[in-house]
Design a protein that fits this description.
The protein is α/β, with parallel strands linked by helices and 312 residues long. It has helices at 42-67, 81-88, 104-110, 114-121, 144-158, 177-189, 236-251, 281-288, 292-302, 308-311, and strands at 96-98, 165-170, 193-199, 202-203, 206-207, 228-232, 257-262. It has a single domain (42-304), classed as Rossmann fold, CATH 3.40.50. Helix content is 37%, strand content 10%.
């Protein structure tokens, strides 16, 4: 099933499901199949889950280290593991991934050692960022990496290389001018770049509805000539599916795609933030029931790809 339509500039198809209108989904919040499952072998499915578990453990450990005075500021990943893994897993070794501070797990999936990112959070950029990973150090300034990604993609196109660029950011970055400029240049030059916005509902303490009057952030794509889609960011298989399709488009010379992954930040914006001041306990509990790890774990166990004993 095609998620991203290609018939015409800005054309798009969105698939509805029960959680929200016009959002593509493979697994619902109970782990039941409601959409086309990507054709992946069981061991690959389990690998996606392992990466998600590593991301959760890494995030929790980094927060604990900060509380102990062993680490500076850190931006937790908790709750966004599915989107982080799903956007990186379909990439090939020679593809580029250029992202922001909350995509540490995406970088790990692409091959960047966790130690390299731990050092960066401590203020050190070292040769642990190996060139072969095609991942520059993650960006702290909102949105600037989107322009960098378009520049790399244009160079790839100029050199007739068969590679693509993945650019990832949060919803807050879409309010920056660099984001719109990146979409505009990518659309004009048909750069082989995929933009993934992890919409976790908050730009620090600013709620999504205070950032844009559009129903979806992905609605900006057609204005710049980019096909776009909205995906359940807590469904790793759904993210994997739409990203894979966008990558295929880019490799075929059909240009960029904008993907909005709707997810939720279960932790704080950073370790310097107190989310209890701007969100309710009921809101958090509602999203805890949609935990991406629990959802995918249930799917794997129900489909005999993983046992409870193995999960322990």
């Amino acid at each position: 099933m095609t998620v991203i339509a290609t018939n015409g500039v800005g054309a798009q198809e969105r698939i509805a499901f029960k959680l929200a209108d016009h959002v593509f989904q493979v697994l619902n919040s109970e782990g039941k199949v409601v959409g086309p499952v990507p054709d992946l072998p069981p061991e690959r499915m389990v690998q996606l889950y392992r990466w998600m578990l590593i991301g959760r453990a890494y995030s929790d450990r980094m927060v604990a280290m900060q509380r102990q005075g062993k680490m500076g500021t850190f931006a937790p990943i908790k709750g966004q593991e599915a989107a982080s893994v799903g956007l990186a897993a379909p990439l090939q070794p020679e593809d580029w991934l250029i992202a922001s501070y909350r995509e540490n797990l995406s970088y790990y999936v692409k091959g960047v050692p966790l130690l390299a990112m731990m050092k960066q959070w401590g203020g050190y950029i070292t040769d642990d960022y190996r060139p072969e990973t095609k991942c520059p150090p993650f960006q702290i300034v909102l949105g600037t990496q989107m322009l960098h990604a378009v520049g790399v993609a244009q160079a790839i196109k100029y050199n007739n290389e068969p590679h693509i660029v993945m650019a990832a950011c949060g919803d807050g970055a879409t309010s920056e001018g660099d984001f719109s400029e990146a979409l505009n240049f990518a659309g004009v030059f048909k750069a082989p770049v995929i933009f993934v916005v992890q919409n976790n509902g908050w730009a620090i303490s600013t709620p999504r509805y205070r950032q844009s009057a559009a129903q979806y952030l992905a609605d900006r794509g057609p204005a710049f000539g980019l096909p776009s889609c909205v995906v359940d960011g807590n469904d790793v298989l759904a993210v994997y599916q739409v990203v894979s399709e966008a990558i295929a488009r880019a490799r075929a010379g059909d240009g960029p795609t904008l993907i909005e992954a709707i997810t939720y930040r279960l932790g704080a914006h950073t370790t310097a933030d107190d989310p209890a001041k701007y969100r309710t306990k009921a809101m958090l509990e509602r999203w805890l029931r949609r935990d991406p790890l629990i959802r995918f774990r249930k799917f794997l166990i129900d489909n005999h790809m993983l046992t409870e004993a193995e999960d322990k």
